[in-house]
Fold these 2 entries.
Entry 1:
Amino acid sequence: MNLTPQTIAGLAEHLESAELLARDVTKITDEHPGMDWDDAYAIQDEIRRRKEAHGQRTVGMKAGLTSFAKMKQMGVDTPVFGFLSDYMSRPEGGEIRTSELIHPKVEAEICVVTKAALKGPGCHLAQVMAAIDFVVPAVEIIDSRYRDFKFDLKSVVADNTSAARFVVGSRMRALDELDLRTLGVVLEKNGQIAAMAAGAAVLGHPLTAVVMLANHLGARGQELPAGSFVMTGGVTEAIAVQAGDHVNVRFQDLGSVSMRFV
Ligand code: OOG
Ligand code: MG
């Protein structure tokens, strides 16, 4: 850790205000080049603490920058992890208000709910498979608080990995009914295909993102409790949206998830 607790608290407030006011800011490493990974996650933890103190429940975890398409789009090479709050959830088929966001982009994500606790370090794929209750599709609406989505990994970790909104689909499936590697995903914007991929785009297997999350938490003395909702990260590059757009994502064997931006 290179930042003082006061600086961490100040940066958490700065980034949370940018989110709540939908106003972009410059990436925080410009002012704090010495910031390390622990500082970055400490800022994210402080944002989470602030939200929970205001009564907003943490309802899930997310992995980000897990697909090769996303890593290439953002010019980075390591997955990152963040949290999801209750107020970020929107109903399937509903409306997303763009006036509350800076420059939203959509991502198609394969998600899971767990039925057993996972604790790293040393957590592996078989343990994760045994802990999966069911698989659900979702769309994440990311909204970096950084101007033009220009950031480095530490800045984006501090900014809770651009988490803003998410829409969970209504069809759930058991893991053994699916082949998560070959599961096809087609992302349509305004009736036209904008991107497509298969599950293997996410780290070779989407559950690898859950393995990494459990090991990441374990390294920090935390676990992923039973009943956790986890988003494994966008399978394709993120697609920019604006008011008037309609997004529909077709997930093989898992139905569709749609929403309108107003
Ligand atoms: C960071 C968040 C990425 C994903 O699914 O890859 C993410 C960003 O690109 O702003 O959520
Ligand atoms: Mg995402």
Note: The pocket of 2-oxoadipic acid (ligand 1) is lined by residues 62, 64-66, 70, 74, 107, 140, 142, 144, 149, 156, 161-162, 233-234, 238 (CB under 6 Å).
Entry 2:
Amino acid sequence: MYLILLGAPGAGKGTQAKLLSEELGIAHVSSGDLFRENIKNGTSLGLEAKGYMDRGELVPDATVIGMIIAHLETEACAKGALLDGFPRTIPQADALDTALHSSFSDSIQKVIYIKVETEELLNRLSGRWICPVCSTPYHEVKNPPKVDHLCDNEGAALYQREDDKRSTAENRLQVYFNQTMPLIEYYLKRGLLIEINGQQKVEKVNQDILAVTGSNRGELSEPLVA
Ligand code: AP5
């Protein structure tokens, strides 16, 4: 099963992907997390991506596409994937389609569009704290850890992302409006898009997504039209 989580920076893609990946039994594939891991390990891919990420711009399509397709071919994705942060442009979406058809004889089952208003997105990004071990995102007010500044799962000290600073976050949102929002129309036309209200409690957003993806592993409910 291949599902896409689509939404602006701060919409809650990572938060939901962590829950859904366990509930649906498929791998969580986050392009942002893969880049951050490469940066941490000092790889050439990480070095290439870092400048773009620090400025809140998109990493070039060819680089992202190569990284994600290679990852989809790993054992971890044998049962499919929940894609978080990819695709983000029409060329990326086309490349994903081609790869799924040719290498896996498969296709995207659903695109979950998590919708959140702009001011709320900026509030979420400025209050976000992340676990350096398992990448679980928290929010200091809206979704705090049980113990201040420590991850519930790992006990590790949480950190804030450099690109969550207000000016970079605003640029990331602008890039999203210009380059990623056309994907909403792209997937809507293909009958794959389902819009979810992302401005509800984390648990309610999760329930709404499960209701349209089916909570049993490997099963999907009837397609809906957004
Ligand atoms: P990436 O890491 O993908 O960042 P993003 O898309 O900007 O998304 P975020 O991680 O900021 O937000 P999210 O939707 O996951 O929200 P979260 O769940 O954390 O990309 C980073 C960079 O990498 C890009 O700028 C680009 O340079 C590069 N890149 C990545 N993919 C690329 C691609 N395909 N092409 C080119 N370049 C690429 O939640 C946010 C906060 O809100 C948290 O604090 C959370 O606790 C809180 N929250 C979540 N849900 C709720 C809720 N329901 N109510 C209240 N608070 C909530």
Note: The beta strands are 2-6, 27-30, 81-84, 110-115, 128-130, 137-139, 193-197.
